[in-house]
Amino acid sequence: MPFYQCSQCQKKWQYTITKCLDCFSELEKKEEGTIKVIGISEVNIPTVLHPETPYFVLLLEDENGNRWAHKSVKEYDTGDKFILEPAKDKSAVAIWRIKYDLSEAIEKTIHLIDGVKVNKSSRVLILPTLLSPRHPHLAENTSPEFLESIINYLLQKGADPEKIKVASQSFNKFPIEASAKKSQLLKVCFKNKIQILDLSKTNFIKKEKDGLIFEVSNEAFNNDLIINLPILKLDSKLKLQGATQNILQLLKKESYLSLQNTHSFQDLLKKIPKYLPEYLTLAEANTIKKQNRHTVFLGLVLASFNPFNLDKVFTKITMTRDLPEYLKDIRIDEVQVVGRQIDELKYHVEGV
After folding, report:
1. Band of residue 350 on the pLDDT scale cut at 50, 70, 90
2. Residues 327 and 337 placed together within one structural domain of the fold
3. Predicted TM-score (pTM) of this structure
4. Which helix (H) or strand (E) holds 258?
5. Would the N or C end of the chain have less CB density within 10 A of its end CB?
6. How many CA atoms within 13 Å lie on the side-chain side of 80?
7. Helix, strand, or coil (residue 69)
């Protein structure tokens, strides 16, 4: 967990504030470095918020003397190093909870799947969710904070802002320009001098695979890294709106609409992503509707190079009963989950 230290009075905070609350000096972000376990409490009594037992509350300390608590289903001994190793499986799903710092959650999930290696020459295509001209608090579109955190992460890793593109297109009645402006994603791109691209105005390549004939933007094949930014949630009928759907915006609009007339939407979700270049999915999972239709705050970031596994993990966390067809053949016990385990997260949707 990063801490923020004042350059003048040396006071520290865990919160993402920009200036010292005492002397108003600039704060410097301090990474945790080596972490060790200095205290352990085993909990065996279930509660409404923590129904799965036993679990362990770890007191962690970094090399700078900063301390914080961490819930774990894995058992540690006092003195053990606390290390979050990246997954070796490219299909693994990383989960991290947004505590105080969104950028920290994004960095952790990317680290846990060993996901981003960029330099000055890397061409990066970012695909946010842009569905309608709505304000950010309505959570219809990728949040401006999420997009800006991704851009800042790429720049810190050495990416050239001139080679980063944020792209989308509209498959409905709303002009993409209106959605980009109202969602404040346009403002984020202007602020960071990032190129904005309307995918409907790009060149398209015709593909024919497994009985599907479609056209896909050549931008899918002209970049070194594609980052898909879906919003994970359940709709009003508690049907999954998952990570896989957002990548379909790479199709030509006429192809997308034509395919929906000749094939089931579930068939498209299952087949189309397999014919695209490998891409990284970084998903927002902030609020969901439970089975009793109450809305609860989830506050998670999920990441994977396999969008099907990511959607499957999300359905397990939210205990979705009516699984979409394209996920029914995936066994959850065969999906590697790193960062936060599913059992640690289920209390968000159980009994609350």
Report:
1. very low
2. yes
3. 0.86
4. helix 253-262
5. C
6. 12
7. strand
Name the nearest CA neighbour of 168 among 151, 150, 186, 155: 186
8: left (phi over 0), alpha (psi -120 to 50) or beta: alpha
Give the CATH number, domain containing residue 289: 3.40.50
Q: How far apart are CA 329 and CA 235, in angstroms?
A: 22
User: What values do phi and psi take at 324, rounded to 5?
Assistant: -65, 155
Residue 41 and residue 26 share a domain: no
| Strands of 14-66, DSSP E | 27-30, 35-43, 55-62
As a whole number of angstroms, the distance between CA 235 and CA 217 comes to 28
Intra-chain end-to-end CA distance of the chain, in Å: 27
Please say whether the beta carbons of 27 and 6 come within 8 A.
yes
At 22, list the tokens: 């005492």
The tens digit of pLDDT for each residue in 121-147 reads 999 999 999 999 999 888 889 999 999
Query: Cα dist. 317→157, 232, 233 in Å?
Result: 31, 11, 11
Q: Classify the C-alpha dihedral 172-176-182-185 as positive or negative.
A: positive
Q: Which domain holds residue 41?
A: 33-83
Is 16 inside a domain boundary?
Answer: yes
187 and 107 inside one domain: yes
Q: Where does residue 84 fall: left (phi above 0), alpha (psi -120 to 50 degrees), or beta otherwise? A: beta
Tally of structural domains, the chain:
3
Question: What is the tens place of the pLDDT at every residue in 202-231?
Answer: 999 998 877 788 899 999 999 999 999 999
CA gyration radius, the chain: 21
Beta strands in 49-182 (DSSP E): 55-62, 67-72, 93-97, 124-128, 164-168
CB 313 within 8 A of CB 343: no
